[in-house]
Amino acid sequence: MKVIGFCGYSGSGKTTLVEQLIVRMRLASQRVSVVKHAHHAFDIDHEGKDSWRHRQAGAFEVVVASDRRLAKIREFEVHADPTVHQLIAELYDCDWVLVEGFKHADLLKIEVWRAAAGKPAQYPNDPYVVAISTDSPDRLPVPTGLPVLDLNDADAVADFLLGNPARYEYHSPLALTGESHPEPSADADAGRGAQPIVERGPAAAGD
């Protein structure tokens, strides 16, 4: 399983890029899953539905399934912020996992950056950023030897990833502890865990 993150501030275009990459990778016969960081108040259930009533009654987990899809809803017994590695561990086997958000996670990632957004860039200080996807290559705040990809050309971003899939092979830090689906702790940090091999500078540009 390969994992790549997409970091950038809100409004940078992360979701649009990830959406387009899913389509491109599916056309390349890849099974793709997504992990996304959400607002604390998000919900996929609806008041009055059977599954909502089960949760209200105190169920820890509710699994709802049909012949087309499955959803699992877990109620944390204490406020928790699961790590990206714990969320990846919840996934069924796939070829690629695209992680949106978790900008401080210890995963290789592509930074999505727009000059017009007026936000600082992450790549100068983040050794896990392996490429920059932007519509403003001439306005990057710091010179870089990292690959610079056209934010409006999802095919080019897909080719960049599919051209060297071994680089993004995922090795879960949870495997070291023998845990596959650990319970998130209340003080879990979304950015700690794996130690992937990180290539920086001009050497990375040839990947």
Average residue-wise pLDDT: 85
- Summed up, the domain count is 1
According to CATH, the fold-level topology is Rossmann fold
Outline the biggest β-sheet. 6 strands, parallel
Radius of gyration: 18 Å
> What would you say the CATH architecture is?
3-Layer(aba) Sandwich
What order do the helices and strands come in, and which of them pair?
Layout lengths: L1 E6 L6 H14 L4 E5 L13 H8 L3 E5 L4 E5 L9 H6 L6 E5 L8 E5 L15 E6 L13 E3 L3 H9 L39 H4 L2
Parallel strand pairs: 1-5, 1-6, 2-5, 6-7, 7-8
Antiparallel strand pairs: 3-4
Written account of the structure:
The protein has 207 residues and is of the alpha/beta class. The protein has one domain: Rossmann fold. Helices cover 20% and strands 19% of the residues. It has five helices and eight strands; from the N terminus they run βαβαββαββββαα. The strands form two sheets. The protein has a six-stranded parallel beta sheet. Helix 1 crosses helix 4. It is globular, with a radius of gyration of 18 Å. 26% of the residues are buried. Residues 185-207 have low confidence and may be disordered.
